[in-house]
Amino acid sequence: MSKTFVALSLVGGSLLLFSLHATGGQDVAPDLAKRITELEKRVAKLERLLLVDALASTSTVSEAEAKLVAAEERLQYSQRLHGKGYVSKTDLDADRAGVLKARRQLELAKAAQDDITKVLEIEVLEAEHNLAVATQRLEYTERLAAKNYATEAAVKAEKLTVEKAFKELVRVEAKLQVHQEPTKGSRDDEKKD
Predict the structure, then answer these.
(1) Would 191 be classed as within a structural domain?
(2) How many domains does the chain fold into?
């Protein structure tokens, strides 16, 4: 006797569909659980890489800001020396180009950081939505159980889904907060100037 099992899993904001084919008395549940665990590990690894990239982009913004300040100071120094005749116009133009280049690099670094922030904000919205849906399903299942249309096992399963969705929301919010913390400090410095 042959059976086909279909399982849905929400992993890292993506819905995965598993279709397993079993024959006779084979149990596919351990195999499915193993595959889901492996996928969750892969997603966690990718999320760690994203977080490392986010932190690297923050340091890139800081580095670009420092390079811009240095280029502007070099230009001011060159302008003073050019006024006294010690620096040629070509050297002065090269320092002006250096300032323009440093400004562009800073703009690019900030744009990359903003892109990562937007991706994390979308993940938070998805996690909030998933929690809301899981909560609604739990409430519905509880109403069905009160009328003896659903089992306690179904209610328990929905409670676990709500708990998992809540943990996912907390995790994604923490990632966003970690990403934004260095940014807040640099924005506070800008406001002081």
Answers:
(1) no
(2) 1
Residue by residue, DSSP assigns the chain as -EEEEEEEEEETTEEEEEEEEEETT---HHHHHHHHHHHHHHHHHHHHHHHHHHHHHHHHHHHHHHHHHHHHHHHHHHHHHHHHTSS-HHHHHHHHHHHHHHHHHHHHHHHHHHHHHHHHHHHHHHHHHHHHHHHHHHHHHHHHHHTTSS-HHHHHHHHHHHHHHHHHHHHHHHHHHHHHHHHHHHHHHHHH-
Nearest CA to 129 among 121, 67, 97? Answer: 121
**Across the strands, what pairs with 4?**
21
* Residue 31 domain flag: yes
Lowest mean pLDDT among 15-24, 64-73, 113-122: 15-24
- pLDDT band at residue 54 using 50, 70 and 90 as cut-offs: low
> For residue 188, is it within any domain?
no
Question: Quick check: 2 and 23 in contact, CB under 8 A?
Answer: yes
Q: Is 170 left (phi over 0), alpha (psi -120 to 50) or beta?
A: alpha
Residue 151 forms part of a structural domain: yes
Residue 71 structural domain: 2-180
pTM: 0.49
Question: What confidence tens digit (pLDDT) does each residue in 72-124 have?
Answer: 999 999 999 989 998 888 888 889 999 999 899 888 888 877 888 888 888 99
